[in-house]
Specification:
By secondary structure, the protein is an alpha/beta fold. Helices cover 35% and strands 27% of the residues. It has 8 helices and 10 strands. The strands form 2 sheets. The protein has a 6-stranded mixed sheet with strand order 6-7-8-3-9-10, sandwiched between helices. The longest helix has 16 residues. It is globular. The protein starts with a strand and ends with a helix. Bound molecules: adenosine-5'-triphosphate and magnesium ion.
Length: 239
């Protein structure tokens, strides 16, 4: 039997009086790097919020690590980095990480570990408010890695980063997955799709595809994943 980190069935979510997720279903096997991709406004953040358990849902089920999303027993086993950095600008990088580490009961040595993982060791004593945008994003990411979570949910963690840093972070995501951590990473940049072991393509609150990059290429007849996405949309609109 497959061991799933996340199982979503028939998920409907309304935001601002409008349905934004229209009955989604998919499963995420443990220990994989899964990309959640789709254009701005398609529902990525909403879906990630539902997985983390902070989104009110209209109907359907979201199961995380074998329990309902947001259940007390799984909360400390899930790390979440929001799309917009949520850290204290008047604290240093180290102080932020110490604070959030204490909140979730992570061991003190985690602070140095996660700063190293995201490459912020030399900014440890700099105020978060004085960091560059990309550095601030990495503090936000580091917070999600505190406490060695089994599932890490990252909402557009590589936005605004240069290619070298992006590559380093993707390498980190894969190392974590090799250690058994399940990584769900959203992006609206299709060239990041090739770096994922599995892709969930979202459009207008519906799943357009849920497969490996190779399967997606084979199905659409192109290795260019941006083009593959457009072809899927074209095929969908033709029916
Ligand atoms: N609080 C809210 N009230 C009303 N509508 C909302 C609210 N939050 C999100 N929405 C709407 O829900 C839809 C999905 O939004 P969501 O933030 O999940 O998209 P996204 O795929 O993450 O987009 P982006 O790539 O721009 O971050 C959008 O149409 C958005 O306008
Ligand atoms: Mg979003």
């Amino acid at each position: 039997m497959m061991n799933y980190a996340v199982r979503v069935a028939d998920l409907r979510v309304r935001r601002g009086g409008r349905e934004v997720l229209h009955g989604l279903g998919f499963e995420v096997p443990r220990g994989r790097v899964v990309g959640l991709l789709g254009p701005s406004g398609c529902g990525k953040t909403t879906l990630l919020r539902a997985i983390v358990g902070v989104q009110a849902v209209e109907s359907g089920t979201v199961e995380v690590l074998g329990r309902p999303a947001g259940a007390k027993e799984v909360r400390s086993r899930v790390g979440y980095a929001t799309q917009h950095p949520a850290v204290y600008l008047d604290l240093t990088v180290r102080e932020n990480l110490r604070y959030f580490g204490r909140v979730i009961g992570a061991p003190g040595e985690d602070v140095d570990r996660v700063m190293g993982q995201v490459g912020l060791g030399s900014q440890a004593d700099q105020l978060a408010g004085s960091l560059s945008g990309g550095q601030l994003g990495r503090v936000n990411l580091a917070v999600a890695l505190l406490g060695a979570p089994e599932l890490v949910v990252l909402d557009e963690p590589t936005v605004g980063l240069d290619p070298v840093l992006r590559q380093e972070l993707w390498a980190l995501f894969h190392r974590l997955a090799e250690d058994g951590v399940t990584m769900i990473v959203s992006s609206h940049v299709m060239d990041e799709a090739a770096r994922c072991q599995r892709l969930v393509l979202l459009r207008d609150g519906r799943i357009l595809a849920d497969e490996t990059p190779a399967e997606l290429s084979a199905q659409t007849g192109t290795d260019d994943l941006e083009e593959a996405f457009l072809r899927l949309i074209g095929a969908q609109e033709a029916v």
